Amino acid sequence: METVNKTRRLKIRHTTTYAYDKPVQHSLHALHLRPVHDWKQSVLSHALTISPHNPQVVEYEDVFGNWGVNFELFVPYTSLTLHAESLVELLDVDPFAFTKMLKRPIFPVTWMPWEQKMLGPYLQPMELPDTQLLEIYDYARQFVSDNKYDLLEALFAINLEFKKSYKYVPGSTRHETTPYEVYVKKQGVCQDFAGLFIQMARLLGLPARYVCGYIYTGNLNDEMADASHAWLQVYIPSVGWKGFDPTNGTLPDTDHVRVAYGRYYRDTTPTSGTLFTAAAETMTVKVRVEEELPTTGTPGATN
């Protein structure tokens, strides 16, 4: 009998507004705002509005396979608003299905030469002082030994540890905060927890990549309801890339909308740019994720 999977539709409104204390004469901008389109996540619609001046944009696929946009402004402005609306349909699949394998992977992990070459950028830990790297490695190694070298159980334990032992504190870190600082202070935001988990995985010999996107929270009035979200994916032998959300201690499912992959946050930044004017900048970001029921047809997709 043919299996039918349920789906969920989420509508995302993402508005970023920049304000400047003097006119910006010339600027370059790069965006990652269009969600990923694949077999588990379908982009039903996407629209981008840029004001003022409605500049011509160049859409392209970046080196990580993300959908990007570049544009340039030559007309002076003191404010810039970027508004993206996307409607995404997510396939409801069991996030733990990959655990039902005949042979469970164990540590240490061995990669073939061609795998090492392709996965190289995701195997290289962030450069930190040796003493800090060794401390993070020992911390990660403890989860391996506690779980009798079972790779999946160790990853699940690390994922749950962030939810149990780390505190979500908005504004407590910066983009420059290192994984070691997060490990020592045991606090941060989703970007920080994903970054430390990535560092731990790579030190254990597992490829890991950063994921930037959105999370549906049921429109609750909390910190993550009105912001982008971040998690990570680990490349598991004979399985492939699998997501882990350390902020929530869960595996990503139909609450998570993927927008961009990268080695670190800077590869996936939703909005970035270069100003050719010395002007002070203020940025405001508003994100809204809402569930939308299909208006026609029967929701669902087949495997």
Strand order of the largest sheet: 4-7-2-15
The amount of helix comes to 10-25%
Strand-residue fraction? 35-45%
Q: Are there runs of 5+ residues with pLDDT below 50, and where? A: 298-303
The average pLDDT is 93
- Tell me the structural class: alpha+beta
Question: Which shape, going by the Cα principal axes?
Answer: globular
- What's the N-to-C terminus distance? 11 Å
Helix and strand run = EEEEEEEHHHEHEHEEEEEEE
Q: How big is the Rg?
A: 20 Å
> Strand count, sense and closure of the main sheet?
4 strands, antiparallel
* SS field, number of helical segments: 5
- Count of beta strands: 16
Verbal overview:
This protein has 303 residues and is an alpha+beta fold. 21% of the residues lie in helices and 37% in strands. The strands form five sheets. A four-stranded antiparallel β-sheet has the order 4-7-2-15, with no helix packed on it. A four-stranded antiparallel β-sheet has the order 5-6-3-14, with no helix packed on it. A hairpin with a 3-residue loop joins strand 11 (229-236) and strand 12. Helix 2 (130-146) crosses helix 5 (190-203).
Task: Give a brief description.
This protein is α+β, with helices and mostly antiparallel strands.
Write the layout of secondary structure elements.
Elements: E1 4-5, E2 7-24, E3 27-31, E4 41-51, E5 57-61, E6 67-73, E7 77-91, H1 113-123, H2 130-146, H3 151-165, E8 167-168, H4 179-185, E9 187-188, H5 190-203, E10 208-215, E11 229-236, E12 240-244, E13 256-262, E14 271-275, E15 281-291, E16 301-302
Parallel strand pairs: 8-9
Antiparallel strand pairs: 1-16, 2-7, 2-15, 3-6, 3-14, 4-7, 5-6, 10-11, 10-13, 11-12
